[in-house]
Amino acid sequence: MIDLRSDTATLPSPGMRRAMAEADVGDEQRREDPTVLRLERMAAAFLGQEDAVYLPTATMANQIALAILGERGTELFVEATAHIMISELGGAAMHSGLQTRGVVGDRGRIAPEQLPPPVHPSDAHHRPRPSVLAIENTHNSSGGTVWPLADVQAVTAAARDLGMRLHLDGARVANAAVALGLPAAEVCRGFDTVTLCLSKGLGAPLGAVIAGSEELMRKARVEKHRFGGAMRQAGVIAAAGVYALEHNVARLADDHARARRLGEALVGAGVAVDLEQVQTNFVQIDVGAMGVETGDALQRLRDAGVGLTATVNHGVLRAVTHLDITDQDISEAISAIPAALGAHGGA
Ligand SMILES: Cc1ncc(COP(=O)(O)O)c(C=O)c1O
């Protein structure tokens, strides 16, 4: 199967496996694992932050960020289809006592005027105080779309004026940076905490980091232990993260080019794709607009040897390119997808 379901589908490459096998290791929980310490230093530099903490998953990174930035009984603002809102099982409420307000965005982006007006002192006894703004870049549910930096700066400045703290769910911030042609540190500037996932486009089998100031990362280490994320000889997996940061960042441009090629060819074959949304490694296909039901479309595609997934958007599937998808795979998908969906002609 040509597995375009997600960029989490990547398998560790031979070079990455060698690095894992040869990793120097120690007790990570005691901060004695040299490979984990190296990865944390590299990730902090990559993200332009003082320090970083190695974690098993990006969900844990997001949840730790909310735990250290939030305050019980206050409000977390996120875009209505962000991962934190729809895919973390209400963790913000469960772990951190936060009330989450989902704001309907434009391609995942929230505008400054969508933030709440300041709480007037006469209202402070009953209105929850907005305490955290979390944004997602790239934005998964919107098809891997990238926030222009000016939009990030506008909404984060407005949130700061309201006294809010800022988290970037940058699970795919390396994709955003490559798409913008900027260092990742630039894309992460101004946030208190940043999540980076190592097991999506970067190709590690697992692992993520949270990054931020030294003071916040001290708190993050406490929460990491509390969440049960403090490990032992974790250098074996952290070595995959080191390898990913050294070898797999710049090459994300190849995934983006393949997604673009796929998207353009599908449009040419009469498949409903909004090319404006194809900004990184996702191609969203509106099978609903083509009169095909989602489950039926997925089955037909599977039968044709192509794996896609449904999205949170009704009638919309996604194809995601990653480092195990070749030019040849894209050529085959370009023939198989329109045929499976019964597309007719070009646009
Ligand atoms: C934007 C975003 N944040 C966080 C996550 C969580 O990643 P993990 O599966 O490593 O917990 C995902 C996973 O798809 C994601 O897309």
Automatic annotation (TrEMBL):
Any Gene Ontology CC annotation: cytosol
Residue ranges of domain Aromatic amino acid beta-eliminating lyase/threonine aldolase in the record: 3-286
Record field: transmembrane: none
Disordered: annotated span: 1-32
GO MF, any single term: L-allo-threonine aldolase activity
GO biological process, any: glycine biosynthetic process
Record has Lyase as a keyword: yes
Keywords: Lyase, Pyridoxal phosphate
Named cofactor requirement(s): pyridoxal 5'-phosphate
Family note: Belongs to the threonine aldolase family.
Xref: NCBIfam families: GntG_guanitoxin
Name assigned to this protein: Unannotated protein
Lineage: unclassified sequences, metagenomes, ecological metagenomes
